[in-house]
Amino acid sequence: MYYILHQHYESVLRLVKIVNPEKLNDFYSIFSNKEFLKLRPQDRLDFIRKTLPVPDSKHFTLDNFKKVAQQTVEEMKKYDITHIDLRLSLHLDRWKSVNNLAHAKEIYDDALIGYDGKSISYIAAIDLTKSEQEIEKSLVALFDKKNIDSISGIDITLNEDDFDKFEKYYKTLLKIRSKFKKKIIIHLGEFTSDLINLKILKKLKPDRVAHGIALLESAEAIEFIKKNGICLDMCPISNEILGVVNWGLINPIKKALSLGISVTINTDDPITFNTNIKKEIEIANLNQEELNVVIENGIKFAGKIF
Question: Cys-Cys crosslink for 185: which of 21, 46, 72, 208, Cβ 3.0 to 4.6 Å?
């Protein structure tokens, strides 16, 4: 029934759930920490990344990666999820036995066997917060034939001070769509300013935007999004925890729908934020007609399956 278009694969935390599940409860306690709640959104995310529990290297085995994939597929069945656009890393450095994104895709596809009516398409992560050396390594991996044939698109992340790197690499990233007919997704309107948001929107013309909360405050951005048929993939609970928006006071999904903007509901990092699609829908507080529109948007904007 549900189509999730923005979900990170979270292999490390999913491994924690398998080998040290008690550590997750300790990790989740930070969300109510007074010092955490004083931080601005970007700093909250940085704090989370620094606090994430990491299992011992001996646990990063092929068998455990298969369990990670199986865990995701079992959640699809549990929460009535028909399809996920799953964000995968191009470099699975901790997982020495997983060769590349294409190999990871094979493992997830194997996990889907026997789950009729369930599907996953794969989105390659491009992280512009990394060093230029790491970005260029990712681009080499991205255009490897096995990897490019395995994905339906790319998902770009960046912070405010990464705009120069965006300027350097965006024309290369545009080849994903012009040459290979893949979707372009980018994180915007979560931590980036209006000025940066607009510059990136106009240069990239993404198919979808992850989050996009702040874009709804700009008349120019709203006009551009509507004109170009861009879908906003919103993640209520992660936005709430990071302090991006108070969902009890402001409802960006309802606002987007009222403006005629396509929007979907997603889980972002479901293990990190201790969430699932049922919780996301509950906090979104939509009526049935609005929820039906969101579900139809998921079907319309989902990545192709390869």
Answer: 208
